[in-house]
Write a structure and sequence with these properties.
- The protein is globular.
- The chain has a two-stranded antiparallel sheet with strand order 1-2.
- The chain is mainly alpha-helical.
Length: 184
């Protein structure tokens, strides 16, 4: 009977469940996790932030704050559809930079809206901006590269934010109001 040379020289498998290097790595990860947990416990979450997310001096005082319309601070309690719509309507009424447009209806009969926030000049040419954006998404709609470059140079940045696509996601409503306020 001929034995394979691999079997003749092979060592028996180790009976250890973990190797020393993997145990050391695991111990380091455990220590790091414990340190991070302890460090997180030392943060005073009740203290006011030392600097606000947005400098209050840059905010337009003629734009209503969410709390001035909904009656409480954002995040203090759940904002219902009627309060959200009341705030968006107040925003649209307060500035020529804001347009509120319905685009559909929920299965419960609530109006779905787009809130466009841009300069008054861009509102006047919104259809052209949409058309140019469509051209940029498909280069085959452009006659040449130079036309695409020219569009990019003259095209405003566009950000589509979708909020509250699921009815039980409460924080998205708060985020939508707060972002709309800061963008105006």
């Amino acid at each position: 009977m001929k034995m394979n040379s691999v079997h003749m020289h092979s060592q028996p498998k180790s009976r250890r469940l973990f190797s020393i290097p993997s145990l050391a790595r695991g111990f380091c990860i455990l220590l790091l996790s414990a340190y991070c947990t302890l460090a997180a416990g030392q943060v005073d979450y009740s203290a006011e932030a030392s600097s606000p997310f947005v400098d209050p001096a840059t905010l337009d005082r003629s734009i209503p704050t969410p709390s001035s319309v909904i009656g409480h601070e954002v995040g203090e309690k759940a904002v219902r559809y009627d309060s959200l719509m009341r705030y968006f309507e107040a925003l649209a009424a307060s500035s020529d930079r804001i347009v509120l447009k319905p685009y559909g209806e929920t299965h419960e009969g609530r109006t779905l809206v787009h809130l466009f926030i841009t300069s008054a000049e861009n509102h006047q040419r919104l259809d052209q901006i949409k058309e140019d954006n469509a051209k940029l998404t498909d280069p085959r709609r452009l006659p040449n590269t130079a036309a695409g470059t020219k569009l990019i140079e003259n095209h405003p940045a566009i950000a589509l934010m979708t909020y509250a696509i699921h009815g039980d996601e409460l924080s998205s409503t708060d985020a939508a109001m707060q972002l709309a306020y800061h963008l105006t």
